[in-house]
């Protein structure tokens, strides 16, 4: 076994690491396609529903175009999803370097 193989954990460990990275890239690509499809569907829905609507919230009442209601609610949902899915400070601080060897 060469010195490089000893440092990286051997050829099998390197191959497993490469496969894991490839799986993660494919997963990200699938998620990106899904997000783009959702964005396109929301945009189509918003454009087809552009007439004004009456909204009441607490003591306010106004008549914005429905497209703006859809956009604002969509952005609020995206922000909420981001904040819920994001790890807290402890999770970010304790996250291990993916290239670091977990065995020590």
Description:
- The chain has 104 residues and is mostly helical.
- Helix content is 67%, strand content 6%.
- The protein has 4 helices and 2 strands; from the N terminus they run ααββαα.
- Strands 1-2 form a two-stranded antiparallel sheet.
- Strand 1 and strand 2 form a beta hairpin.
- The radius of gyration is 23 Å and the shape is elongated.
Structural class designation: mainly alpha
Query: Number of helix segments?
Result: 4
Q: Report Rg.
A: 23 Å
- Helix fraction bin: 55-70%
Average pLDDT across residues?
A: 75
Bulk shape? elongated
Poorly predicted regions are none
Order of helices and strands: HHEEHH
Q: How far is it from the N-terminal to the C-terminal residue, by CA?
A: 20 Å
Q: What percentage of amino acids are in beta strands? A: 5-15%
**Strands across the major sheet, in which order?**
1-2
Q: Give the beta-strand count.
A: 2
How would you characterize the largest beta sheet? 2 strands, antiparallel
Summarize it:
With 104 residues, the chain is mostly helical.
Supply the key terms.
mainly alpha, two-stranded antiparallel sheet, 4 helices, 104 residues, single chain, elongated
Secondary structure layout:
Blueprint: H1 3-8, H2 11-48, E1 55-57, E2 60-62, H3 66-85, H4 89-94
Antiparallel strand pairs: 1-2
Helix pairs in contact: 2-3
């Amino acid at each position: 076994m060469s010195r490089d193989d000893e440092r990286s954990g051997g050829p099998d460990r390197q191959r497993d690491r490469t496969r894991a990275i490839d799986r993660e890239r494919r997963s990200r690509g699938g998620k990106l396609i899904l997000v783009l499809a959702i964005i396109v569907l929301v945009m189509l829905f918003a454009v087809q529903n552009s007439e004004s609507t009456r909204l009441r919230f607490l003591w306010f009442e106004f008549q914005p175009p429905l497209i703006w209601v859809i956009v604002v609610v969509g952005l609020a949902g995206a922000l909420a999803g981001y904040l819920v899915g994001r790890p807290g400070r402890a999770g970010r601080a304790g996250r291990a370097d993916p290239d670091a060897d977990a065995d020590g």
